[in-house]
Queue: 2 jobs
Job 1
Amino acid sequence: MANIKSILKESIEQLGLVEKLSVEYILLSLLCALVCGVVIYLVYKVFHRGAVYSENFAMLLVMTTVVTAFVVLTIGSNLVLSLGMVGALSIVRFRSAVKEPLDAGFMFWSIAAGITSGAGLYPFAVIATGVIALIYI
């Protein structure tokens, strides 16, 4: 009688959910996320209209974009690991209130750029980042 781990592994492999990530694919995804994050950072820094500018928040936008791409790469390559990641991320809570409504928009923008970069949709990530930057400017 096969153990549960081998049965689960076989069923996941049959579904095609396990794929090998190449180093080039990982680096390209993270580089695309970094480029998008830097564009978001620059737009926030140069065109910020709020009362209080936070350099820490601006740097967080870059970090959020790259970390989101990293998480999407991890989740997309291993179903079992993604379940653990979702469980771990579900306990994270943000305790600081958003002071400016546009800051929430910038945060969603950086998360979306990270998701599209991590999913390998590089042209979409770059074009959407550029379009949103033009809209904001």
Job 2
Amino acid sequence: MNTSLSSARADRRGRWIAVGLAFGLFAAAASGQWAPGQPLPDLSTFGLAGLLPDSFAGRVVLVDFWASWCGPCKASFPVLDGLQKKYADRGLVVLAVSVDEKADAKDRFLAEHPVSFAVVHDLAQRLVAAAGISAMPSSFLVDRKGVIRFAHTGFKPESTPAELEREIESLLAEEHP
């Protein structure tokens, strides 16, 4: 094969890869994908089923997206419940957002895995779309000023609990707004 022809094809392929990456980044930004540094949107505008906590103002919030069919979600729930119990008095609020297609799947899961934190259901998938969730579980830690500071995808029992606790401690130690 002619090396100049091969080089031209490689250049074209490289340009298409760059265009694809740029488009992917643009699509992620356009879809409203949540990321550290962005404010947490007003969750009451997404038509979630269930009771949201009265207020997030001045609190550290852990928003966790989960589904009943998700194995790592089952492992994460006791950890999240422990964090809620340990840090609630210092200002932590855990909010779990079920993305199950049917409420009865969510209800069966919660009957088997009862928790002390708030759980809502995103039946219309509006919040999950706005957050750009692509894996379960996915969670976001929000500081007392309402800014997303940390994002997590997946749950690894050997590392995620300590990482969450470290991040929660750092956010709780920050001054109140």
